[in-house]
Every structure is written in C-alpha cells, then in structure tokens.
Amino acid sequence: MIDIDLIREHPEILEDAAAKRGIDIPVSEAADLDKQRRLTIVEIDNLRAKRNDVSRELGRLKEKPAELIQDMREVGGRIKQLEEQERDIAIKLESILMNIPNLPAETVPIGDDEDGNVVVRTIGEKPKFDFEVKPHWQIGEDLGIIDIQSGVKLAQSRFYVLRGKGAALQRALIQWMLNLHTLENGYSELYLPYMVNRETVTGSSHLPHFEENMYHDSEDDLFMVPTAEAPVTGMFRQEIIDYAELPMRFVSHTPCWRREKFSAGRDTRGIKRVHQFDKVEMYKFVEPDVSYDELELLVRDAEDVCEKLGIPHRVLELCSGDLGFAASKSYDVEMWGPGTEEWLEVSSCSNCTDFQSRRASIRYRPVKGGRPRFLHTLNGSGLAIPRVLIAIMENFQRADGSVLIPEVLRSYTGFDVIDGQ
Tens digit of pLDDT for each residue in 49-75? Predict the structure, then answer.
C-alpha cells in the first residue's frame, strides 16, 4: 500500500508513476475522499468534546434542563450519523488505495510491456546438438516421466502427473535448492501452510487485485497459496521486529496454485504454464537503506542455481509497464530452452520496498531508537520447478532419447541418466 501522504502532499509523484506503468490512478478522487474523511473526523471529535463538556456540567447541576438534555440527544444522533458517514468514506478510500500499485524505482527502464525489458547479462553458451532436438513434452512422453493425460483425468487441463524418475528428479531439485540456499546462501528454511486466510493475502498484496486468479475455499474463507511469498509476509503481520534481527532471509518450498485463464493456443503443450506447480521461494525483510543492494544479492542467489546446474541463462530488468503490482524494481532470470528455442522464466526477483510492510503493518525498531519504521520486503523464486525440469530435459537430452542428470543432482537422485528403463 502506498503512503497516504503522497496523495495529500505529492499527488504529482503518483500521477508520474501511473504514466510510467501505463495505468490510470484516481488520485483526485482519493484526495477528495481523504479530505472528506479528515473533516468528518474533526467534526466528530468536536461534537464528542462538546458532549463531554455538557455531561460534566449536567453532573454538577441538581436540576437537569430539559432543553440541554434534548440538545445532547441531538448531538449523540449527529455523532452516530457522522461515524457511519466516516466509515463509508473510509471504505471507499481504502478500496482505491488497495488497488494502487507500488511506485517504480527511478532506475527502472520505461516501457509499455515485456518488449521494453532490458537484458542485463547472459551467462553460458547455448548447447549445440548434432541430432534433431525435441521439446520437453515429447521427451517426457517418450521416457514415460510426464503424464499429461492423467493430470487432465484427475483434475482438468493444465494439470499433470510426474512418474518414476521424473518425480524423483523434481524431489531432488527441491531438496538440493533448499540445501543450497540454507547451507551456502544464508537463508533459514520455513515449512508453511498451503492455505492462508484473507488477511494474509491482503497483506501480501495478492488481494484484492489478484483474487480472480486464486483458488478459494468459500466455507472457511481460505486461499490456496499462489506463492510462499504470501504466508512468509503474513507471519510477521502487525509485528515490530528488533533491528538486531535484520536482515531476515527465509526460504520455503510450497506447491503454488493459480487459476489464471490461459490464452488459447499459447503454451498449451507440456508443463510450462499450469495451475499447480512447485516452487522454492526466497524472501527477505531488510532495512530500507540496503534493500536495493539486497535485491542484487537475491538475483545472484537465483543465478547461483542456474550456474551450478550448468544451464545457460540470462537476467532481464523489467520495464515500468511489466512490473508486478507490489514491485518497485524487478529482475527476471530465464533459462534457455533449446527444444522450443525460447527463454524460460524461472525466477522473478523483486524489491517491494515498504509496499507490503505498510499493508501488513510490519515494522522494525531502529538501532538508535525512535519510532518504529516500515521495513522493506523482497522476494524471488529460487527457483520455479517445472521450468527448471523443462530446461534440464531440453539442454541435457541425448541422441538416444535419454536425459543426462546435472552432476550436482546425482547424489540426490541416485541415478545419472533418465533413459526410460
């Protein structure tokens, strides 16, 4: 959530941010509602003070003047009316504020959509093959490790089943990534609920903006997690963290569920775009003055996975029109997929500044004391599992149809190759 002072004192900053993102923000309407609310609160406070003064005066009188008592009844009625009016205004104002995205950082490139993203660096050489390269869905079907039909039978389209060594490879990836981030990169592991309440996904900024893309249990009003980012944010909702505990770096593996409607004909084959997938998520709580440095480190931790797997990858800085709702600055990490000759997004690393902490009321106590301040939050995939599986199958496929297992995973899988045996 943005700081309300921006609307009161610097509306031009919001208007500039809206232009950079290519959206409309009802700044004037929000400013009018905020002014109405503050004036209403002042009137309520004045009437309450008047009522208190008269009540004290009546307490000193033996005979209570009827007209004064009637006047107080009218004041009480007016207070009740104004309180209802203030609540209505507050609801309208909050609805606007909840749908205003974070402000793009000054260094973010300006652009309308993904075509405006900027390649920062490319690491590794694309593999060359002396045989006809196959896409992952063909490899998976030929080796019997990806079963799309069973996923559709069990649920609907965009679900899948991993079999045998395919399932083992996914399990190995998850275990290895968690070990890498906890033992080498300084993160603390969390095991989290896979369903969370409305307050949690509101604080993480997934509600109300993304509600239609989330799976929801209406009876208990619980949401299937779209990412571990939501419950990690929610763990510290309405808390004040001591300075000595910062930075806090967490990592967690969860399944993720997303109801998003997929375009007909786009990525319809395989496991690239699905409703349920596993992901290892990295998350940081940091002081504001180090958050952009921590973002660069977060990207390096995501790249570390790519490099150790030996898969070519690149880093893109997202332009203003392609930024996520809560992000102030973001980088995507993409692995090369030779089967379809495309780059596969395996991580999006974002600095959300104080946007989520303000919504979730997460603050820290500065080292020199003083009032608690909103801290900064960062998140990034470390990594998204299905697309890493795709990249492994396509980059390490061999002429005989088998797939070589990256060396760092072999002690986790217990096998060196997937050959359909």
Answer: 988 888 777 767 767 677 777 888 888
Q: pLDDT tens across 291-349, in order?
A: 999 999 999 999 999 999 999 999 999 999 999 999 999 999 999 999 999 999 999 99
| Amino acid residing at 200 | T
Phi, psi (degrees; rounded to nearest 5) at 314: -140, 160
Cis ω for the linkage preceding 288 (within 30 of 0): no
**Parallel, antiparallel or unpaired: strands 362-365 and 376-384:** unpaired
Domain segments of the chain as ranges: 4-99, 114-418
In the predicted structure, residue 364 carries a pLDDT above the cut 70:
yes
Q: Amino acid identity of 254?
A: T
**Cα distance between residue 379 and residue 369, in whole Å:** 27
- CA 11 to mean position of chain CA atoms: 26
User: What is the identity of the amino acid at 284?
Assistant: K
Q: What are phi and psi of 9, to 5 degrees?
A: -115, -30
Please write the tens of the pLDDT for every residue from 135-149. Answer: 999 999 999 999 999
Q: How many CB atoms lie within 10 A of CB 306?
A: 24
β-sheet with 362-365: strand ranges across = 239-242, 362-365, 373-374
Whether omega before 207 lies within 30 degrees of 0, making that bond cis, reads no
Whether the per-residue pLDDT at 268 is higher than 80: the answer is no
Neighbours of 338 (CB within 10 A): 18
> Hey, what CATH topology would domain 114-418 get?
BirA Bifunctional Protein; domain 2 (3.30.930)
87-119 burial, b if ≥16 CB within 10 A, otherwise e?
eebbeebeebbeebbbbbbeebeebeeeeebee
For domain 4-99, is the CATH number 3.30.1480.10? no
Cα–Cα distance for residue pair 393/405, rounded to 1 Å: 9
Of 56-65, 136-145, 150-159, 235-244, which range is least confident?
56-65
Taking the alpha carbons of 187, 188, 194, 197 in that order, is the dihedral positive or negative?
negative
Is there a contact between 201 and 274 (Cβ–Cβ < 8 Å)?
Answer: no
Assign 254 a pLDDT band (cuts: 50, 70, 90): very high
